[in-house]
Design a protein that fits this description.
Order of helices and strands: HHHH
Strand content: under 5%
Radius of gyration: 13 Å
Oligomer: single chain
Number of strands: 0
Largest sheet: none
Number of helices: 4
Helix content: over 70%
Distance between the termini: 34 Å
Structural class: mainly alpha
Length: 75
């Protein structure tokens, strides 16, 4: 099945907030599909890390803070 870019972006945001497993279950997609999207997103971010604007860096920092909060909450 082919998913739109918008769907993937929203799925990744959800997975950042509630975790991969829960997001995949909630969306009815395979865990490994969502995991692959996240890996590709993270790789693209690493490749662009020195080319990010201040606004992009702020957005990424917020995403990472949310992920850290989610991880701390799940411990």
């Amino acid at each position: 099945m082919k998913y739109s870019k918008e769907f993937k972006e929203e799925a990744l945001k959800l997975s950042d907030d509630i975790g991969l497993k829960k997001a995949a279950q909630q969306l009815g997609i395979q865990y490994y599909t969502l995991s692959d999207w996240r890996s590709k997103r993270n790789e693209a971010i690493r490749n662009q890390k020195y080319q990010m604007s201040d606004e992009e860096l702020k957005k990424r920092n917020l995403e990472l803070e949310r992920e850290n909060f989610r991880i701390q909450k799940s411990k």
